[in-house]
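Below sits the subject:
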Amino acid sequence: MTSRKNSLKSTNKRMTRPKLKPKPKPKPTHKPTGTTPEEVPSTTDRISKLPDHILHHILSFLPLQEAGRTSILSHRWIHVWVSMQGLKFYTDEFANCGPDKFISYVNAALPYRSKQDLQVFKTFLFNDSPTNIAASTRWITHALKNDVRVLHIIIRLKNSGENVIVPRPMLTSRSLEELGLFSFPNVRIITPNVISLSQLKILSLQHMDVNSAFMEKIISGCPRLENLNLHCCWLSCLGISSRMLRNLVMEKCEIQNQRENEFYICTPNLENLHFNQKYVVCSPRVNVYYWLLKLDFRSLKLDIPNLKSLILGGYWVARDPAAVTFFLQHSPMLEKLTLICKEVYRKRRDVEPLNMSSDLCFQCKNLNSVDIIGNKSDKNIPHLTEVLKRNGIANLNLTLDSSSVFGDDCLKMLYDVWFWINYQSIYT
């Protein structure tokens, strides 16, 4: 029996399947140059090891709410977003929540921020209630105490044409290098008696009512001002005199008065001038009819001997070549000229024969080429090109489209008529 059992055991041993050995993993044929798999593990957090200024740059592309959520990633990220040197608060992130939640969020976020110098601060100035005004003033004051350099304020109005009192430290800061005030619709800024912005180099105003007193305070109180940008502003006059100004942009601004003593641009070191004037209301009492105001450039006092780049735009560019040559006569160092010829009305006057008088002659030795943008159906453009050619400008770059003359400009004009009616209804 024992021998039989032994034979069965030996048979079972022979019938059992041998254990299979695991196949060796194939070795990678390509290795990263200069590194080994042990040196670059998959769990390494290389982003957290970056310097703070690089992390701040990365977070600047995120909405502020998402940037704040990064504080839960690790201990390294707790204080990264609060030490950012650029804070941009926009209500677009709170579009579905309303302004109340936006104000609550900003009030809660600013106390957590460390006391470091700010580079950029952009926020809203609410002018609809005393509580919101106090909150907005508190934010701006916080930024100014942290020596902010770039400050952009978007003013939110309840009604158009309101007077807004900006925080006094905003116009007496010693750290501001760039200031932007933007509003829609137009707003009047109540300024202190003295404006002192010793370091300001760039000033941008949009939809602002600018009078002569305000302009004089800005020019005298900003001795280092180099760039002045005026967009869609209502100018009671045009009087700019500065030796430091290098770039001047006047885009779709409305000039009310053209008196000789308040109609001048005296900027000896100006290098770039962008003047785009399309159409304005000729009388503050006109509510329905929109007229083209004839700007008498011959009464404009110009002192721009070092101008190098000039952009002129408006209905008068092609219709009145003498106005164009007037600017060129005062710009002997001009190197680049761009003319934007945009007609507003379908009806045009007949083109008069060309008569080369002294008003149409100029000398710009450095001006070799001119860019002209307009419409193919504009019969005044050939008249303008002929004036330029007779003054020695042979290289003319024409960009002419065949779009409807009564298209976009007409829609803009009708929109401005609607806006002007609502604007005037407040004061009448």
In short: The chain has a mean pLDDT of 76. The chain is about 25% helix and 25% strand. The longest helix spans residues 408-424. The radius of gyration is 33 Å.
